[in-house]
């Protein structure tokens, strides 16, 4: 079990914490429902009464009801969820791109929290913390034994409060304490830079409230650096999703006006919709259009979209739209396969229900639920082949996932491949911890897949996947 946790730690390096989801918000809960099943409701009341009177120790009534609601929702699918006061607050922080903490993107390495990158301007950045630093203690608690989520929760808190981090800096071989005052952090979900003369790279880590504004600003900066842009790489690797409107806006930046981006279909009338490349479909709160000032060349500049098994939901909407509209070449690996939309319905000021209300479809009518978007050009993770790809869980592996027409309950071949890859990796790590290196940071000079995307744009040879036939079999499994 310990070895399995180590695998997860390696896989999360460089990834922002976030749920795989595409979100819509509604102002109020719907109250239209048919008559309740009397016999089953009587059974529920009877169980409630028995627990109250017969359980070994007293149980809080509110907790029983909350647990009953949570269990009912959790039985639907992997993405529906009941939010109590605490989880609703955390969820809203995740979609807003704002939270109170120290300001670092983190992963795990050998059971310790590894700083992937301090967020520019944050308390951690000002305190001099660096990429690669390891956090060994948070206040008086040793990090060894904590999960990534537990470590994140300990570093977050109220604005103005202090947290003591014990840092081990490997390249200096020293350990030192740093006291940091927590403050509200504004996460930029978009990164961009010129990666070669005439060629830009723009990465979206998650689709949040601020994503479209940040995205438009970064694109403007790229075109100011080189108005004669020859090619652009849109990097959606390990992007777990987020807000539907943000995804529609990002796709709209590259597509002709009014082109179909995505359609949705579900049981209720509101879930039957088509979203197009128009401000009416991506401006949730009105206001000015962030895309209005973008250069016209953006509609025609040659493009590559990078995706992998961690590209899910909203990022799959963008990838599917640009692929179907023949606007970009998709490169990488088959995506996660989350083709459902969750709607957040407030139940009170502090609680809400996140419930799956629709499936989404690409412009050509494809539902990618439990399958994913298949790239035009398959790429391995490194020049030597794949390291972690077979270990990554996809939608089809999740318990209670929505099926997409006739579908086998389990893909035995994929399960076997993942288990063999996990055992091989654990064996290598047991022999030599340095034998398996974490994948390089996306956008770095060592980023193999980005190098292949540039080759594609420049008309140079591309090193395609060495496991192409195996991956095509997986793509056709659903």
TrEMBL record:
<protein>
    <submittedName>
        <fullName>S41 family peptidase</fullName>
    </submittedName>
</protein>
<keyword id="KW-0732">Signal</keyword>
<keyword id="KW-0720">Serine protease</keyword>
<dbReference type="InterPro" id="IPR001478">
    <property type="entry name" value="PDZ"/>
</dbReference>
<dbReference type="GO" id="GO:0030288">
    <property type="term" value="C:outer membrane-bounded periplasmic space"/>
</dbReference>
<dbReference type="GO" id="GO:0008236">
    <property type="term" value="F:serine-type peptidase activity"/>
</dbReference>
<dbReference type="GO" id="GO:0006508">
    <property type="term" value="P:proteolysis"/>
</dbReference>
<dbReference type="InterPro" id="IPR005151">
    <property type="entry name" value="Tail-specific_protease"/>
</dbReference>
<dbReference type="GO" id="GO:0004175">
    <property type="term" value="F:endopeptidase activity"/>
</dbReference>
<dbReference type="Pfam" id="PF22694">
    <property type="entry name" value="CtpB_N-like"/>
</dbReference>
<dbReference type="InterPro" id="IPR029045">
    <property type="entry name" value="ClpP/crotonase-like_dom_sf"/>
</dbReference>
<feature type="signal peptide">
    <location>
        <begin position="1"/>
        <end position="17"/>
    </location>
</feature>
<dbReference type="Pfam" id="PF13180">
    <property type="entry name" value="PDZ_2"/>
</dbReference>
<dbReference type="InterPro" id="IPR004447">
    <property type="entry name" value="Peptidase_S41A"/>
</dbReference>
<feature type="domain" description="PDZ">
    <location>
        <begin position="88"/>
        <end position="170"/>
    </location>
</feature>
<dbReference type="Pfam" id="PF03572">
    <property type="entry name" value="Peptidase_S41"/>
</dbReference>
<comment type="similarity">
    <text>Belongs to the peptidase S41A family.</text>
</comment>
<keyword id="KW-0378">Hydrolase</keyword>
<dbReference type="InterPro" id="IPR036034">
    <property type="entry name" value="PDZ_sf"/>
</dbReference>
<dbReference type="GO" id="GO:0007165">
    <property type="term" value="P:signal transduction"/>
</dbReference>
<dbReference type="InterPro" id="IPR055210">
    <property type="entry name" value="CtpA/B_N"/>
</dbReference>
<keyword id="KW-0645">Protease</keyword>
């Amino acid at each position: 079990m310990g070895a399995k946790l180590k695998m997860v730690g390696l896989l999360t390096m460089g990834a922002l914490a976030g749920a795989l989801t595409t979100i819509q918000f509604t102002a109020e809960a719907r109250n239209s429902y048919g008559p309740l099943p009397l016999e089953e409701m009587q059974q529920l009341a009877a169980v409630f009464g028995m627990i109250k009177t017969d359980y070994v120790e007293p149980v809080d009534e509110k907790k029983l009801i909350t647990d009953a609601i949570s269990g009912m929702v959790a039985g639907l699918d992997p993405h529906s969820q009941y939010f109590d006061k605490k989880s609703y607050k955390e969820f809203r922080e995740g979609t807003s791109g704002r939270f109170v903490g120290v300001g670092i993107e983190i992963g795990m390495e050998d059971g310790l929290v590894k700083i992937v990158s301090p967020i520019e301007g944050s308390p951690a950045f000002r305190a001099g913390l660096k990429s690669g630093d390891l956090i060994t203690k948070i206040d008086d608690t040793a990090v060894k034994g904590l999960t990534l989520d537990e470590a994140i929760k300990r570093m977050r808190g109220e604005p103005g409060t202090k947290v003591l981090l014990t840092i081990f800096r490997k390249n200096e071989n020293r350990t030192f304490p740093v006291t940091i005052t927590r403050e509200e952090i504004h996460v930029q979900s978009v990164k961009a830079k010129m990666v070669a003369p005439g060629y830009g790279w723009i990465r979206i880590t998650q689709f949040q409230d601020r994503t479209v504004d940040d995205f438009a600003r970064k694109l403007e900066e790229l075109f100011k650096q080189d108005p004669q842009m020859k090619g652009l790489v849109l990097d959606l690797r390990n992007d777990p999703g987020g807000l539907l409107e943000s995804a529609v806006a990002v796709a709209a930046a590259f597509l002709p006006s009014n082109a179909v981006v995505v359609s949705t279909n579900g049981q209720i009338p509101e879930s039957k919709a088509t979203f197009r490349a128009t401000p009416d479909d991506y401006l949730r709160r009105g206001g000015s259009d962030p895309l209005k000032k973008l250069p016209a060349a953006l509609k025609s500049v040659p493009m590559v979209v990078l995706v992998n098994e961690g590209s899910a939901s909203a990022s799959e909407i963008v990838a599917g739209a640009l692929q179907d509209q023949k606007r970009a070449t998709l490169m990488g690996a088959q995506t996660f396969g989350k083709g459902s939309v969750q709607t957040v319905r407030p139940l009170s000021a502090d609680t809400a229900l996140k419930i799956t209300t629709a499936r989404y479809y690409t412009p050509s009518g494809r539902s990618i639920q439990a399958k994913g978007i298949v790239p035009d050009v398959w790429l391995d993770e490194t020049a030597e082949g794949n390291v972690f790809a077979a270990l990554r869980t996809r939608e089809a592996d999740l318990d209670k996932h929505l099926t997409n027409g006739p579908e086998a309950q389990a893909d035995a071949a994929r399960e076997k491949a993942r288990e063999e890859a996990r055992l091989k990796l654990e064996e290598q790590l047991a022999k030599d911890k340095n034998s398996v290196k974490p994948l390089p940071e996306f956008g770095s000079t060592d980023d193999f897949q980005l190098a292949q995307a540039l080759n594609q744009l420049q008309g140079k040879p591309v090193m395609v996947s060495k496991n192409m036939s195996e991956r095509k079999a997986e793509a056709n499994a659903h």
